[in-house]
Specification:
The chain is α/β, with parallel strands linked by helices. The chain contains 8 helices and 8 strands, in the order ααβββαββααβαβαβα. The chain is about 40% helix and about 20% strand. The strands form 2 sheets. The protein has a 6-stranded mixed beta sheet, with helices on both faces.
């Protein structure tokens, strides 16, 4: 049985604790109202968060640099590519079917150029992009290598159209593969009939690509197929080339211009066969 003295000591201790707690709350309220710091704590250090797009675009280590042209061609295979546009004369055909033929023609031109200029290294990779459930947003049709028109035609014939339009994500994938080639002159050609509506925002991706150092920067070309070129104003503002094609003949002409007037116009000679003065 506890003594009266022990009880009195316990009461005194309890009272002291209550008094301290009340004082702490009063001090907290006063400091909070006065705007003074309520406690002293270690200084907060904010760790910079790296932009995931910039991070994804970091060139791979250990890749030998080579003189030559690398071209990534990206074709939109989203659902809207099933729609029809003018082909030749009054005929209308699905946009994907027209694009498949144009891709084959593009590969044929590149193959002929490579054969006529054996002193110049040129490699091309073809991709399709669309958002389809668990599938990757960008899928290789034909891996980087020397232009092969027949192989591309066979691969392109299997394409189907469905899903969303992840242009930004597709460009990231293509640029990563371009960097792995080590080629000195890089080009990304996008053929699309819709606005980016899935994945990374297109302006963010294009800006990150345009801000890369010159050694790793790729030229960007967008062919707006049956869609207003104004939809890609951020691409143009970031330094990309935006062209419009409203039907099949215009698409063929536009691709021919990009290939012959842009991509191949300043093709570098290999060190073994320097360009003639």
């Amino acid at each position: 049985m506890s003594s009266p003295r022990n009880n009195n000591n316990a009461k005194a201790i309890t009272k002291a604790i209550v008094t301290l707690v009340v004082a702490a709350f009063v001090l907290h309220a006063v400091l909070h109202r006065s705007g003074q710091p309520m406690s002293v704590s270690p200084a907060r250090v904010d760790t910079p968060v790296e932009n995931p797009i910039v991070k994804a675009l970091k060139p791979p280590q250990g890749v030998a640099q080579r003189n030559g042209i690398g071209v990534a061609v990206l074709i939109d295979t989203s659902g809207s590519m099933t729609e029809s546009v003018g082909s030749s004369g009054s005929a209308r055909r699905p946009k994907l079917a027209i694009a498949q033929e144009c891709l084959a023609g593009l590969a044929k031109q590149m193959e002929q150029y490579a054969q006529q200029h054996p002193d110049q290294r040129i490699e091309v990779g073809f991709y399709e992009f669309s958002g389809r459930g668990g599938s990757a947003p960008c899928r290789s049709i034909l891996a980087f290598g020397a232009p092969n028109a027949q192989a591309l035609q066979n691969a392109a014939a299997k394409l189907t159209a469905s899903g969303d339009t992840p242009i930004g994500d597709a460009m990231l994938q293509a640029k990563q593969d371009l960097d792995r080639t080590g080629l000195s002159h890089q080009h990304i050609l996008v053929i699309t009939d819709g606005e980016n509506n899935r994945g990374y925002a297109l302006p963010d991706v294009v800006t990150a690509l345009a801000n890369q150092d010159p050694e790793h920067r790729a030229a960007m070309y967008f062919v707006a197929f049956d869609i207003a070129g104004e939809k890609f104003a951020p691409v143009r503002q970031a330094g990309g080339t935006v062209l419009h094609a409203g039907n099949g003949p215009e698409l063929r002409q536009t691709l021919d211009y990009v290939l012959s007037g842009k991509i191949l116009a300043e093709a570098p000679a290999t060190p073994a066969s320097p360009a003639k003065p």
